[in-house]
Amino acid sequence: MVSLNACFITLLTIAESCTLVSALSTRRDVLGSALRSATAAGSGVLVSSSLSSLVPIANADDDTTTAFSSYRINPDASSKLDPTLTPIDPNKLTQILSKTSGNHGGAVWLGEHHNSVKDHKLQAQFIQKIHQHRKQQQFGSNNKMAVGLEMVQVQFQQVLDAYISKQISDDELKEQVQWEKRWSWSFEGYLPIFQTCRQLNIPLIALNVDSEDLGLVEANGLPGLSRDKLQKYVPDPNGFAQFARNRYYKTYVDYVISPSFDLHKKMGILRTTITGQVLEEDMSFARFFSGRILWDESMASNAYKWVVNNPGGLICCLVGADHVKFTGGITGRFERMAKEQQLDCTSVILNPTLIDTRPSGSVSMLSNVAALASGPNDLTLQLRYLKEGVDVGSEESRLPDSTGGVLALADYLVLSSSNT
Questions:
Q1: Which residues pair with 417 in a beta bridge?
Q2: What are the DSSP calls for 25-85, one per residue?
Q3: Average confidence (pLDDT) over 110-126
Q4: What is the pTM of this model?
Protein backbone atom coordinates (compact mmCIF):
# COMPACT_ATOMS: atom_id res chain seq x y z
CA MET A 1 0.00 0.00 0.00
CA VAL A 2 1.46 3.34 -1.04
CA SER A 3 1.22 6.06 1.61
CA LEU A 4 -0.76 9.21 0.84
CA ASN A 5 2.42 11.28 1.14
CA ALA A 6 4.10 9.07 -1.46
CA CYS A 7 1.01 9.49 -3.64
CA PHE A 8 1.36 13.31 -3.43
CA ILE A 9 5.04 13.17 -4.37
CA THR A 10 4.44 10.86 -7.35
CA LEU A 11 1.63 12.98 -8.77
CA LEU A 12 3.49 16.26 -8.36
CA THR A 13 6.50 14.75 -10.09
CA ILE A 14 4.32 13.65 -13.01
CA ALA A 15 2.77 17.13 -13.22
CA GLU A 16 6.11 18.91 -13.22
CA SER A 17 7.55 16.59 -15.89
CA CYS A 18 4.78 17.41 -18.36
CA THR A 19 5.11 20.29 -20.74
CA LEU A 20 3.09 22.82 -20.27
CA VAL A 21 -11.77 23.78 -14.27
CA SER A 22 -13.67 25.27 -12.62
CA ALA A 23 -17.40 24.69 -11.91
CA LEU A 24 -18.13 27.76 -9.92
CA SER A 25 -17.83 31.48 -9.92
CA THR A 26 -15.64 33.54 -12.23
CA ARG A 27 -13.79 30.81 -14.12
CA ARG A 28 -16.87 28.86 -15.14
CA ASP A 29 -18.77 31.99 -16.04
CA VAL A 30 -15.95 33.14 -18.32
CA LEU A 31 -15.65 29.75 -20.01
CA GLY A 32 -19.41 29.51 -20.44
CA SER A 33 -19.52 32.95 -22.00
CA ALA A 34 -16.76 31.98 -24.41
CA LEU A 35 -18.64 28.86 -25.48
CA ARG A 36 -21.86 30.77 -26.02
CA SER A 37 -19.96 33.28 -28.12
CA ALA A 38 -18.65 30.39 -30.17
CA THR A 39 -22.23 29.42 -30.90
CA ALA A 40 -22.80 32.77 -32.51
CA ALA A 41 -20.00 31.90 -34.89
CA GLY A 42 -22.14 29.10 -36.23
CA SER A 43 -20.74 25.93 -34.69
CA GLY A 44 -24.18 24.36 -34.71
CA VAL A 45 -23.37 22.15 -31.74
CA LEU A 46 -23.14 24.39 -28.71
CA VAL A 47 -26.28 26.35 -28.02
CA SER A 48 -27.12 29.14 -25.67
CA SER A 49 -28.61 28.02 -22.39
CA SER A 50 -31.43 30.46 -23.08
CA LEU A 51 -32.66 28.07 -25.77
CA SER A 52 -32.70 25.05 -23.46
CA SER A 53 -36.26 25.72 -22.32
CA LEU A 54 -37.39 24.79 -25.83
CA VAL A 55 -36.37 21.16 -25.31
CA PRO A 56 -39.47 18.96 -25.06
CA ILE A 57 -39.77 16.84 -21.93
CA ALA A 58 -38.80 13.26 -22.67
CA ASN A 59 -41.67 10.81 -22.28
CA ALA A 60 -40.81 7.21 -21.46
CA ASP A 61 -43.96 6.04 -23.23
CA ASP A 62 -43.31 8.09 -26.35
CA ASP A 63 -41.71 6.44 -29.41
CA THR A 64 -40.45 9.80 -30.69
CA THR A 65 -36.70 9.54 -31.14
CA THR A 66 -33.84 11.76 -32.18
CA ALA A 67 -32.29 10.56 -35.43
CA PHE A 68 -28.55 10.04 -35.27
CA SER A 69 -25.67 8.26 -36.94
CA SER A 70 -23.16 6.27 -34.96
CA TYR A 71 -19.67 4.90 -35.51
CA ARG A 72 -17.24 2.54 -33.84
CA ILE A 73 -13.63 3.76 -33.71
CA ASN A 74 -11.09 1.17 -34.82
CA PRO A 75 -7.71 2.32 -33.47
CA ASP A 76 -4.55 1.31 -35.30
CA ALA A 77 -1.20 0.90 -33.52
CA SER A 78 0.51 -0.64 -36.54
CA SER A 79 3.16 1.17 -38.55
CA LYS A 80 0.35 2.67 -40.65
CA LEU A 81 -1.26 4.45 -37.68
CA ASP A 82 -4.46 4.64 -39.70
CA PRO A 83 -7.56 4.50 -37.45
CA THR A 84 -10.91 3.99 -39.14
CA LEU A 85 -14.60 4.44 -38.42
CA THR A 86 -17.18 1.70 -38.86
CA PRO A 87 -20.82 2.82 -39.14
CA ILE A 88 -23.03 1.16 -36.53
CA ASP A 89 -26.79 0.89 -36.82
CA PRO A 90 -28.28 3.11 -34.09
CA ASN A 91 -30.46 0.29 -32.78
CA LYS A 92 -27.45 -1.99 -32.66
CA LEU A 93 -25.49 0.61 -30.70
CA THR A 94 -28.30 0.86 -28.15
CA GLN A 95 -28.17 -2.92 -27.72
CA ILE A 96 -24.40 -2.80 -27.30
CA LEU A 97 -24.64 -0.11 -24.65
CA SER A 98 -27.40 -2.00 -22.85
CA LYS A 99 -25.44 -5.20 -22.32
CA THR A 100 -22.74 -6.05 -19.83
CA SER A 101 -20.29 -8.89 -20.43
CA GLY A 102 -21.05 -12.00 -18.45
CA ASN A 103 -23.57 -10.07 -16.34
CA HIS A 104 -20.70 -8.51 -14.36
CA GLY A 105 -22.09 -5.00 -14.77
CA GLY A 106 -20.28 -1.86 -15.85
CA ALA A 107 -20.42 1.76 -16.92
CA VAL A 108 -21.31 3.68 -20.08
CA TRP A 109 -19.85 7.19 -20.33
CA LEU A 110 -21.88 9.60 -22.48
CA GLY A 111 -19.49 12.50 -23.13
CA GLU A 112 -21.45 15.70 -23.59
CA HIS A 113 -21.11 19.41 -24.30
CA HIS A 114 -22.76 20.92 -21.24
CA ASN A 115 -24.95 23.43 -23.06
CA SER A 116 -25.80 21.34 -26.10
CA VAL A 117 -29.51 20.66 -26.51
CA LYS A 118 -28.71 17.94 -29.04
CA ASP A 119 -26.48 16.11 -26.59
CA HIS A 120 -29.07 16.18 -23.81
CA LYS A 121 -31.81 14.93 -26.12
CA LEU A 122 -29.56 12.02 -27.09
CA GLN A 123 -28.78 11.26 -23.45
CA ALA A 124 -32.45 11.14 -22.50
CA GLN A 125 -33.14 8.89 -25.46
CA PHE A 126 -30.28 6.51 -24.68
CA ILE A 127 -31.34 6.25 -21.05
CA GLN A 128 -34.90 5.45 -22.01
CA LYS A 129 -33.95 2.89 -24.68
CA ILE A 130 -31.25 1.20 -22.61
CA HIS A 131 -33.66 0.87 -19.69
CA GLN A 132 -36.29 -0.59 -21.99
CA HIS A 133 -33.85 -3.06 -23.54
CA ARG A 134 -32.48 -4.25 -20.21
CA LYS A 135 -35.99 -4.69 -18.84
CA GLN A 136 -36.98 -6.77 -21.85
CA GLN A 137 -33.84 -8.90 -21.74
CA GLN A 138 -34.05 -9.25 -17.94
CA PHE A 139 -30.28 -9.93 -17.67
CA GLY A 140 -30.93 -12.89 -15.45
CA SER A 141 -32.81 -11.55 -12.45
CA ASN A 142 -30.92 -8.25 -12.47
CA ASN A 143 -31.65 -5.31 -14.73
CA LYS A 144 -30.49 -2.62 -12.29
CA MET A 145 -29.58 0.69 -13.83
CA ALA A 146 -28.53 4.13 -12.61
CA VAL A 147 -27.53 7.45 -14.15
CA GLY A 148 -24.39 9.18 -12.86
CA LEU A 149 -24.13 12.97 -12.91
CA GLU A 150 -21.02 15.13 -13.14
CA MET A 151 -23.34 18.09 -12.53
CA VAL A 152 -24.11 17.18 -8.92
CA GLN A 153 -21.62 17.01 -6.05
CA VAL A 154 -21.54 14.01 -3.72
CA GLN A 155 -22.81 15.98 -0.71
CA PHE A 156 -26.21 16.20 -2.43
CA GLN A 157 -26.87 12.48 -2.97
CA GLN A 158 -29.81 12.51 -0.55
CA VAL A 159 -31.42 15.28 -2.61
CA LEU A 160 -31.22 13.13 -5.75
CA ASP A 161 -32.73 10.20 -3.83
CA ALA A 162 -35.59 12.39 -2.66
CA TYR A 163 -36.24 13.57 -6.22
CA ILE A 164 -36.42 10.07 -7.70
CA SER A 165 -38.75 8.97 -4.89
CA LYS A 166 -40.97 11.97 -5.78
CA GLN A 167 -40.57 13.65 -2.41
CA ILE A 168 -39.43 16.94 -3.99
CA SER A 169 -40.26 18.80 -7.20
CA ASP A 170 -38.10 19.82 -10.16
CA ASP A 171 -37.71 23.31 -8.72
CA GLU A 172 -36.77 21.95 -5.31
CA LEU A 173 -34.16 19.70 -6.92
CA LYS A 174 -32.60 22.70 -8.62
CA GLU A 175 -32.58 24.71 -5.41
CA GLN A 176 -31.37 21.98 -3.06
CA VAL A 177 -28.37 20.88 -5.18
CA GLN A 178 -27.49 24.59 -5.47
CA TRP A 179 -27.46 24.26 -9.24
CA GLU A 180 -26.96 27.91 -10.13
CA LYS A 181 -24.06 28.28 -7.72
CA ARG A 182 -22.26 24.98 -8.29
CA TRP A 183 -22.88 24.12 -11.95
CA SER A 184 -24.44 27.13 -13.74
CA TRP A 185 -25.15 25.48 -17.10
CA SER A 186 -28.85 25.55 -17.99
CA PHE A 187 -30.90 23.38 -15.62
CA GLU A 188 -33.69 23.27 -18.19
CA GLY A 189 -31.36 21.58 -20.66
CA TYR A 190 -30.94 18.63 -18.28
CA LEU A 191 -34.51 18.57 -16.98
CA PRO A 192 -35.87 16.09 -19.57
CA ILE A 193 -33.15 13.64 -18.47
CA PHE A 194 -34.02 14.04 -14.80
CA GLN A 195 -37.73 13.64 -15.51
CA THR A 196 -37.13 10.52 -17.59
CA CYS A 197 -35.18 8.95 -14.72
CA ARG A 198 -37.86 9.94 -12.22
CA GLN A 199 -40.60 8.47 -14.40
CA LEU A 200 -38.69 5.19 -14.85
CA ASN A 201 -37.48 5.10 -11.22
CA ILE A 202 -33.82 5.10 -12.30
CA PRO A 203 -31.54 6.26 -9.46
CA LEU A 204 -29.48 9.40 -10.02
CA ILE A 205 -25.94 9.18 -8.62
CA ALA A 206 -23.85 12.23 -7.70
CA LEU A 207 -20.31 11.86 -9.07
CA ASN A 208 -18.53 15.15 -8.56
CA VAL A 209 -16.16 16.43 -5.89
CA ASP A 210 -17.62 18.85 -3.37
CA SER A 211 -16.47 22.29 -4.47
CA GLU A 212 -15.27 23.15 -0.96
CA ASP A 213 -12.77 20.28 -1.14
CA LEU A 214 -11.74 20.96 -4.73
CA GLY A 215 -11.09 24.57 -3.77
CA LEU A 216 -8.68 23.43 -1.05
CA VAL A 217 -6.75 21.38 -3.62
CA GLU A 218 -6.60 24.27 -6.08
CA ALA A 219 -5.23 26.54 -3.37
CA ASN A 220 -2.90 24.09 -1.60
CA GLY A 221 -2.52 20.97 -3.76
CA LEU A 222 -3.60 17.48 -2.70
CA PRO A 223 -1.98 17.92 0.75
CA GLY A 224 -4.64 20.59 1.34
CA LEU A 225 -7.14 17.81 2.02
CA SER A 226 -7.18 15.85 5.24
CA ARG A 227 -6.56 12.12 4.99
CA ASP A 228 -10.24 11.35 5.56
CA LYS A 229 -11.40 13.81 2.91
CA LEU A 230 -8.92 12.55 0.35
CA GLN A 231 -9.93 8.93 0.93
CA LYS A 232 -13.53 9.99 0.32
CA TYR A 233 -12.59 10.60 -3.31
CA VAL A 234 -9.49 8.40 -3.63
CA PRO A 235 -10.21 5.10 -1.86
CA ASP A 236 -7.32 3.47 -3.75
CA PRO A 237 -4.27 5.76 -3.37
CA ASN A 238 -1.95 3.04 -4.66
CA GLY A 239 -3.86 2.71 -7.93
CA PHE A 240 -4.26 6.49 -8.11
CA ALA A 241 -0.48 6.96 -8.01
CA GLN A 242 0.23 4.03 -10.34
CA PHE A 243 -2.17 5.39 -12.97
CA ALA A 244 -0.04 8.50 -13.35
CA ARG A 245 3.02 6.33 -14.04
CA ASN A 246 1.53 4.76 -17.17
CA ARG A 247 3.69 5.50 -20.20
CA TYR A 248 0.68 6.74 -22.11
CA TYR A 249 -0.41 9.10 -19.34
CA LYS A 250 2.24 11.74 -20.03
CA THR A 251 1.11 11.83 -23.67
CA TYR A 252 -2.46 12.33 -22.48
CA VAL A 253 -1.46 15.13 -20.11
CA ASP A 254 0.60 16.90 -22.77
CA TYR A 255 -2.26 16.73 -25.28
CA VAL A 256 -5.30 17.33 -23.06
CA ILE A 257 -4.53 18.83 -19.64
CA SER A 258 -1.53 21.07 -20.34
CA PRO A 259 -3.18 22.93 -23.25
CA SER A 260 -6.29 23.38 -21.10
CA PHE A 261 -4.14 24.95 -18.39
CA ASP A 262 -2.49 27.23 -20.96
CA LEU A 263 -5.88 28.33 -22.25
CA HIS A 264 -7.10 29.09 -18.72
CA LYS A 265 -3.95 31.11 -18.18
CA LYS A 266 -4.37 33.11 -21.39
CA MET A 267 -7.96 33.86 -20.42
CA GLY A 268 -6.75 35.19 -17.07
CA ILE A 269 -8.97 32.92 -14.97
CA LEU A 270 -6.41 31.12 -12.79
CA ARG A 271 -6.38 33.71 -10.02
CA THR A 272 -9.45 32.24 -8.31
CA THR A 273 -10.30 28.75 -7.07
CA ILE A 274 -13.53 26.92 -7.78
CA THR A 275 -15.05 28.49 -4.65
CA GLY A 276 -14.06 32.00 -5.70
CA GLN A 277 -11.11 32.32 -3.34
CA VAL A 278 -8.73 34.91 -4.77
CA LEU A 279 -5.14 33.66 -4.99
CA GLU A 280 -2.07 35.86 -4.60
CA GLU A 281 -0.79 34.60 -7.94
CA ASP A 282 -2.04 32.43 -10.77
CA MET A 283 -2.70 28.82 -9.84
CA SER A 284 0.33 26.68 -10.67
CA PHE A 285 0.11 23.87 -13.17
CA ALA A 286 0.72 21.32 -10.39
CA ARG A 287 -2.35 22.53 -8.49
CA PHE A 288 -4.48 22.82 -11.62
CA PHE A 289 -3.41 19.28 -12.50
CA SER A 290 -4.15 18.04 -8.97
CA GLY A 291 -7.67 19.48 -9.13
CA ARG A 292 -8.31 17.94 -12.52
CA ILE A 293 -7.21 14.42 -11.58
CA LEU A 294 -9.12 14.54 -8.27
CA TRP A 295 -12.22 15.45 -10.29
CA ASP A 296 -11.70 12.51 -12.66
CA GLU A 297 -10.83 10.05 -9.90
CA SER A 298 -13.90 11.02 -7.88
CA MET A 299 -16.27 10.49 -10.79
CA ALA A 300 -14.72 7.15 -11.69
CA SER A 301 -14.67 5.90 -8.10
CA ASN A 302 -18.28 6.90 -7.37
CA ALA A 303 -19.48 5.12 -10.52
CA TYR A 304 -17.38 2.09 -9.60
CA LYS A 305 -18.79 2.07 -6.07
CA TRP A 306 -22.34 1.95 -7.40
CA VAL A 307 -21.60 -0.97 -9.74
CA VAL A 308 -19.87 -2.93 -6.97
CA ASN A 309 -22.83 -2.37 -4.67
CA ASN A 310 -25.26 -3.40 -7.44
CA PRO A 311 -23.77 -6.55 -9.03
CA GLY A 312 -24.70 -6.86 -12.68
CA GLY A 313 -25.98 -3.29 -12.79
CA LEU A 314 -25.25 -0.67 -15.44
CA ILE A 315 -24.55 2.99 -14.69
CA CYS A 316 -24.85 5.49 -17.55
CA CYS A 317 -22.76 8.53 -16.66
CA LEU A 318 -23.34 12.01 -18.06
CA VAL A 319 -20.02 13.85 -18.04
CA GLY A 320 -18.14 16.38 -20.15
CA ALA A 321 -16.55 15.00 -23.30
CA ASP A 322 -13.20 16.36 -22.15
CA HIS A 323 -13.22 13.86 -19.26
CA VAL A 324 -14.02 10.95 -21.57
CA LYS A 325 -11.68 11.39 -24.52
CA PHE A 326 -8.39 9.56 -25.06
CA THR A 327 -8.64 7.21 -22.04
CA GLY A 328 -6.60 9.27 -19.57
CA GLY A 329 -9.55 10.91 -17.82
CA ILE A 330 -12.43 9.01 -16.23
CA THR A 331 -12.56 5.93 -18.44
CA GLY A 332 -9.00 4.73 -17.87
CA ARG A 333 -9.43 5.23 -14.13
CA PHE A 334 -12.68 3.24 -14.06
CA GLU A 335 -11.01 0.45 -16.07
CA ARG A 336 -8.17 0.38 -13.54
CA MET A 337 -10.61 -0.04 -10.66
CA ALA A 338 -12.83 -2.53 -12.49
CA LYS A 339 -10.17 -4.81 -13.97
CA GLU A 340 -10.33 -7.52 -11.32
CA GLN A 341 -14.14 -7.75 -11.47
CA GLN A 342 -14.08 -7.64 -15.29
CA LEU A 343 -16.62 -4.83 -15.41
CA ASP A 344 -17.51 -3.26 -18.74
CA CYS A 345 -16.42 0.29 -19.56
CA THR A 346 -17.75 1.87 -22.75
CA SER A 347 -17.10 5.43 -23.87
CA VAL A 348 -19.27 7.47 -26.23
CA ILE A 349 -18.72 11.05 -27.36
CA LEU A 350 -21.83 12.88 -28.49
CA ASN A 351 -21.61 15.25 -31.44
CA PRO A 352 -17.80 15.56 -31.39
CA THR A 353 -16.16 18.55 -33.04
CA LEU A 354 -12.65 19.28 -34.23
CA ILE A 355 -12.11 21.34 -31.08
CA ASP A 356 -12.91 18.31 -28.92
CA THR A 357 -10.16 16.23 -30.51
CA ARG A 358 -7.35 18.79 -30.69
CA PRO A 359 -5.40 20.55 -27.92
CA SER A 360 -7.30 23.41 -26.27
CA GLY A 361 -6.83 26.70 -28.11
CA SER A 362 -5.32 25.10 -31.24
CA VAL A 363 -8.44 25.22 -33.44
CA SER A 364 -10.13 28.42 -34.59
CA MET A 365 -13.91 28.64 -34.63
CA LEU A 366 -13.85 29.05 -38.42
CA SER A 367 -11.90 25.82 -38.79
CA ASN A 368 -14.27 24.09 -36.41
CA VAL A 369 -17.32 25.21 -38.37
CA ALA A 370 -15.77 24.10 -41.65
CA ALA A 371 -14.95 20.68 -40.17
CA LEU A 372 -18.54 20.15 -39.03
CA ALA A 373 -19.63 19.91 -42.66
CA SER A 374 -17.49 16.80 -43.21
CA GLY A 375 -18.93 14.88 -40.27
CA PRO A 376 -16.40 12.84 -38.28
CA ASN A 377 -13.85 12.58 -41.10
CA ASP A 378 -11.50 15.33 -39.87
CA LEU A 379 -11.49 14.31 -36.21
CA THR A 380 -8.35 13.10 -34.48
CA LEU A 381 -9.35 9.51 -33.68
CA GLN A 382 -6.31 8.43 -31.68
CA LEU A 383 -3.14 9.57 -29.96
CA ARG A 384 0.16 7.77 -30.42
CA TYR A 385 2.44 7.32 -27.42
CA LEU A 386 6.03 6.13 -27.38
CA LYS A 387 7.73 3.09 -25.94
CA GLU A 388 9.51 3.36 -22.63
CA GLY A 389 12.93 4.95 -23.08
CA VAL A 390 12.08 6.80 -26.31
CA ASP A 391 12.19 10.58 -25.92
CA VAL A 392 9.60 12.87 -27.48
CA GLY A 393 11.07 14.80 -30.41
CA SER A 394 14.06 12.48 -30.86
CA GLU A 395 14.96 10.91 -34.19
CA GLU A 396 14.04 7.54 -32.72
CA SER A 397 10.55 8.76 -31.86
CA ARG A 398 9.77 9.08 -35.56
CA LEU A 399 10.40 5.40 -36.24
CA PRO A 400 7.33 3.15 -36.55
CA ASP A 401 8.71 0.59 -34.10
CA SER A 402 9.01 3.29 -31.42
CA THR A 403 5.22 3.30 -31.00
CA GLY A 404 4.21 2.09 -27.58
CA GLY A 405 0.51 2.11 -28.40
CA VAL A 406 -2.41 4.40 -29.18
CA LEU A 407 -5.22 6.01 -27.21
CA ALA A 408 -8.57 5.96 -29.02
CA LEU A 409 -10.71 9.10 -28.86
CA ALA A 410 -13.55 6.89 -27.56
CA ASP A 411 -15.20 3.56 -28.31
CA TYR A 412 -18.10 5.14 -30.21
CA LEU A 413 -19.12 8.47 -31.73
CA VAL A 414 -22.72 9.62 -32.08
CA LEU A 415 -23.82 12.49 -34.33
CA SER A 416 -27.33 13.93 -34.25
CA SER A 417 -29.01 14.46 -37.59
CA SER A 418 -28.81 18.09 -38.60
CA ASN A 419 -32.54 18.63 -38.35
CA THR A 420 -32.97 17.26 -34.82
A1: none
A2: HHHHHHHHHHHHHHHHTT-SSS--GGGGGGSPPP-TT------EEEEEEE---STT---EE
A3: 96
A4: 0.85
